[in-house]
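User: Quick sanity check before I run a bigger batch. Here is a single chain. Can you write out its predicted 3D structure?
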Amino acid sequence: MPPPAQLPYAGGGTSRVRAEEMGLPWALPVAGALVRPWAPDDLPSLVQHANNPNVARQLRDRFPHPYEPAHGRGFLSWLARQQTPTVWAISVEGRGVGGIGLEVGQDVERESAEVGYWLGEPFWGRGIATAALDAVTARAFRLFDLSRIFAVPFAGNAASIRVLEKAGYVREGHLHRSAIKDGVIVDQYLYARYR
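Assistant: Done. Predicted structure follows.
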């Protein structure tokens, strides 16, 4: 059995979280959908759904567009090296069609984590992203000993804002002129959910 991974926790030490202790996969209340680890055989589906300008335009620039097989291989290789899994696939009928993950804060922000997510366009409007966000949020509070999980969507991303609100996140603020996307300065909102 591999050694447990180390993860900073609110008390200032480390929490040991094994992937198998996460209880994955997490079934979602949408037929055929679940949150699970990414797998090497997800590469074709990952590239198919990530290589979409309608997906990329709502994400940070570190999510490349066009999204090519080399990007997918690099991403899956990076995930394989994670000591404690913090990024998972959103799977529908056995195929990885989106992703969701956390960036756990450090130092004085160690009780918080930022959540991010995306979903392939053919699956929009079915409640899958909301269900995945709700499932990951609920488990992350317990697994990573967090008191707050937040997201920072672009102010013009009405669909993501709806997902956050349906999953119990509340708007904490309006970040004026706080980001640049495709050469345009844009506002962002700050949403959070609390333990």
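The beta strands are 5-8, 14-17, 26-27, 33-36, 87-92, 95-104, 112-119, 148-151, 170-181, 184-194.

User: Great, the batch can go ahead then.
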